[in-house]
């Protein structure tokens, strides 16, 4: 079983001509088959954690390590991370002009599997995954992220996850901007992938509502650039009732 291990991770960004430390020693282990939720106030550094693990050039790792089965993830290119079995939804936030969803997915699958999936089975797989996510078949022919609505972006993210079958998936704010029906469809998608037992998921969110549909095995409260508390699903209920105030007192998170 694959294990993602984040140890004492410190990360800085350059902003307004100064260097700001955003992550201040994050420790987290996610194993294949487990679902972890990271919850915390806006500005606490949740997305920075996701981007840092994804290898976004804007974020400088100043201390600590990220490994997948002992292999140094921080030394890997973005492609190598994907081939190693990591799915980082935020890797592809940009428009990809002239590349359809269908071609993009097949190219990604080819890169990850080391060979092109057989066209006929692949077309069936894509079709069935799209049906389950209640996506219009015409979506497959649209250019990646071009004019996608918030909900379409999130569905596309889950579609990729279903088809690419990662060992470790990091989903940042998968629930934001979704209406109740879309939230349920996207959650159902995550739960289908989860039911295979083959993926370890890190679900990053500000709101507790997605956790009504996806029951995490572990909940971590993120505040001021580190994990302030860890627990089971019951911790999410506590957060829903009490908010994050207890964790942000004296801190600088906005
Ligand atoms: P969260 O996802 O928890 O809302 P973020 O990781 O987005 O938090 O942001 C944490 C802090 O880091 C914020 O103060 C934010 O302004 C700052 N930050 C994050 N990314 C950048 C960036 N690329 N450039 C400048 N500041 C950033
Ligand atoms: Mg934010
Ligand atoms: Mg964020």
Automatic annotation (TrEMBL):
The lineage of its organism: Bacteria, Bacillati, Actinomycetota, Actinomycetes, Kitasatosporales. The gene is sufC. InterPro entries: AAA+_ATPase (IPR003593), ABC_transporter-like_ATP-bd (IPR003439), FeS-cluster_ATPase_SufC (IPR010230), P-loop_NTPase (IPR027417). Pfam families: ABC_tran. The keyword Nucleotide-binding applies. CDD domains: ABC_FeS_Assembly. Keywords: ATP-binding, Nucleotide-binding. SUPFAM superfamilies: P-loop containing nucleoside triphosphate hydrolases. SMART domains: AAA (SM00382). Belongs to the ABC transporter superfamily. Ycf16 family. This is Fe-S cluster assembly ATPase SufC. Residues 4-249 form the ABC transporter domain.
């Amino acid at each position: 079983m694959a294990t993602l291990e984040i140890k004492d991770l410190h990360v800085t960004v350059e902003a307004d001509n100064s260097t700001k430390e955003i992550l201040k020693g994050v420790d987290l282990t996610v194993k294949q088959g487990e679902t972890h939720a990271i919850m915390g106030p806006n500005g606490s550094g949740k997305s920075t954690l996701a981007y840092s693990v994804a290898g976004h050039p804007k974020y400088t790792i100043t201390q600590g390590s990220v490994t997948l089965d002992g292999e140094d993830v921080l030394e890997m290119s973005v492609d190598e991370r994907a081939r190693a079995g990591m799915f980082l939804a935020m890797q592809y936030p940009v428009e990809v002009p002239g590349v359809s969803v269908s071609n993009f997915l097949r190219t990604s699958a080819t890169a990850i599997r080391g060979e092109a999936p057989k066209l006929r089975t692949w077309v069936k797989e894509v079709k069935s995954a799209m049906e389950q996510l209640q996506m219009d078949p015409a979506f497959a022919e649209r250019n990646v992220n071009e004019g996608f609505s918030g909900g379409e972006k999130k569905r596309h993210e889950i579609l990729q996850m279903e088809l690419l079958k990662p060992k470790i998936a990091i989903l940042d704010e998968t629930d934001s901007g979704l209406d109740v029906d879309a939230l349920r469809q996207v959650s159902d998608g995550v739960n289908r992938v989860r039911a295979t037992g083959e993926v370890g998921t890190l679900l990053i969110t500000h709101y507790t509502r997605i956790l009504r549909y996806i029951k995490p095995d572990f909940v971590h409260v993120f505040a001021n650039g580190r994990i302030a508390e860890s627990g089971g699903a019951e911790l999410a209920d506590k957060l829903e009732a009490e908010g994050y105030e207890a964790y942000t007192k004296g801190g600088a998170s906005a």
